[in-house]
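Handout, section B. The chain below has 103 residues.
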Amino acid sequence: MSWIEDRLKALKNASSYSGIPWEELQDRRSGRSTGLALIAIGQALTHPGEEIRIKDHYDSREADELLMRTTFDLVSKLELEGFTFNKAYKFIRFDLLEDKITN
């Protein structure tokens, strides 16, 4: 399944559980939310151990939940490890695990 097909499936699922009409979600593919998800991932990677808040550019709980899902999907697709997702409080955290080098 392609990235676009995955995204459309996620939007259709979001429509069913969020109550946002599919027609409204269908027209919202500007890429801004994906950009925000990538920014959050980058912030988490560059600030290990800090909680990075997930907040969409649309000011609604449903949009924040969709952004959280988008962020999770991107982390999964990129096969990144060490991320913690808190759906209740809408944050992600990256926990850096450094190998200790001994001489």
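Note. Residues 37-96 form one domain. Compare this with the example in section A.
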